[in-house]
Amino acid sequence: MNGPRLAASWTLLVFAFMYLPVAVVLLFSLNDSEIIAFPLQGLTLDWYREVVSDPRLARGFGITMMVAAPVAVLSTLLGALAALALTRYDMRFKAAFAALLLVPFLIPRLILAVGQLIVLSDLGIARSLVTVVLGQTVVILPFTSMIIASVLMRVDRRLEEAATDLGASAWSVFRRVTLPLMRNGLIAAMFIAFVLASSETVLTTFVSGRQQPLSLLVASDFRFAISPSLNALAVLIVFGNIALVLLGEAVRRRSLRK
Amino acid sequence: MSRTGNWLAAPVVLALIATCLVPMGVLFAYSFFQVDFVAINTDPTLKNYAKIIGSETYRSLIGRAFLSGAVVVAITAVIGYPVAWFVARRGGEWKSALLTLLLVPLYTGDMVRIFAWRVILGAEGVINRFAQWAGLITEPIQVLLFSPIASHLVLAYNFLPFMVMGLWLGYEALDDALVEAARDLGAPPVAVFRRVVLPMTLPGLIAGGMMVFVMVVGDYMTPQLLGGASGVTVISAINDLFGTAFDWPLGSAIACTLLALLGLFLAVAAYALSRMNLGRSLISGEA
């Protein structure tokens, strides 16, 4: 029996399986037919034209930007504080703090969403883009904290100690040594947070008001009617997301190699 | 730098309290309230919990959620072991690129993934058309879509990368000399896996399994949109009670029950994990 060869083929198969949905969506987004089925009918870019010229989707895209950008900044900022506290400084209850950071990841998204909904309704806060930003930030915080911590853990502490020994104040050590070294981690976290925020649907459904981001428009279109233009929209979203994630990964990698 | 960490962590803790812990606390409080017509009666009562315990429907929904979690953990573990082995042992300089490649599909978003699977599994979809073309079937297989098969397949697809990450960490901690020793002493492959590889990679399996389990139990979209009649889950029941049925207290009580059971499960798994790390030298000494 040839175990390693078998495992190699299996791995190849699994990777193909992981990318199958992306491939299928791409294929049908270019297919010249109203019906999403085989056999393929020929090439067209009409579905892309339809998506790009749809004012409703354009508005949704604008709202997604207005939500995902602040979420990315806010969750990266909080994630940086958390990662610094965990890896760089003394603090009490460090283990409890680390566990607390994971709580929003472990609670089912819909349960967290209904909890937030009750709080908003009891306090009489109207649902708006602000509530979406705050709600999403907390579920994305575990991801940004981990990404930034993974970069900080590999930064050589002796660099900071040397600066301190040479008489730099705690603030200038942070400002002139730690911050430049963690910068790539911050950028990577921000990209990934943006991607996660723009594709979040469950929590967003509950805490958003009348202004609906693109992810919710896709969700409702999908429930009512499947059209080939949804394929084109999915392709645009997927490749936008993948580009951002790979860009973030490349930036993070660069900082690890140094 | 004494206690600077406390000051850094303070805003994060405040944010977590305001947007996560307070909502969960309020949810817990609501689970003791009741609905009188359209108003909410805040006299504390245990009636909601009594209703859950007494209701065949809710008990079986919770049971089914945990069963789904276990099934998907098992599927992802079986699929994931060879992949994790390959990445850890044969990945070489491509190791981190392979792991990134595995994680990238996670970022395509729930809706897009579910949409794509509908195209693949539908009656006119990729699989049915291919099987018909190849002459394997004459009529399209209807159960591929809107069935438990569809929702479990896609749940396994969704969370497989988490399992592979866990198992990969497990393999990184496994010393191949032990596997070789077992082989040299004449252990057949199944025994090598069961007596050496499995116990040594168990921490990774538990860590990956915990993540997969929690995410399967908490998933809303996948069973809803691909599961057909089986799409009624405990999570969708909570959603209905907060939406159309307007019984927030009962919905809260179900949510709290589910959270308590999940917490218990996580605590047991985390305890097992911590004992394993402590007792690792002991275990390897025995083996």
TrEMBL record, chain A:
Localisation per UniProt entry: Cell membrane
Species of origin: Seohaeicola zhoushanensis
PANTHER family: PUTRESCINE TRANSPORT SYSTEM PERMEASE PROTEIN POTI
Membrane topology: Multi-pass membrane protein
GO annotation terms (biological process): transmembrane transport
The protein's name: ABC transporter permease
Keyword annotations: Cell membrane, Membrane, Transmembrane, Transmembrane helix, Transport
GO cellular component, one term: plasma membrane
Similarity remark: Belongs to the binding-protein-dependent transport system permease family. CysTW subfamily.
Segments passing through the bilayer: 12-30, 61-84, 96-119, 125-152, 185-209, 229-248
ABC transmembrane type-1 domain location: 61-248
UniProtKB/TrEMBL annotation, chain B:
Locations listed in the record: Cell membrane
Broad class of the protein's primary localization: membrane
TM annotation in the entry: 7-33, 65-87, 99-120, 153-171, 196-218, 252-273
Claim: Ribosomal protein is one of the keywords in the record: no
Keywords tagged on the record: Cell membrane, Membrane, Transmembrane, Transmembrane helix, Transport
One GO term (biological process): transmembrane transport
SUPFAM superfamilies given in the database record: MetI-like (SSF161098)
Domain ABC transmembrane type-1: 62-269
GO CC annotation: plasma membrane
InterPro entries associated with the record: MetI-like (IPR000515), MetI-like_sf (IPR035906)
Protein topology in the membrane: Multi-pass membrane protein
Keyword Phosphoprotein in annotation: no
Family to which the UniProt record says this protein belongs: Belongs to the binding-protein-dependent transport system permease family. CysTW subfamily.
Name of this protein: Spermidine/putrescine ABC transporter permease
Species of the source: Seohaeicola zhoushanensis
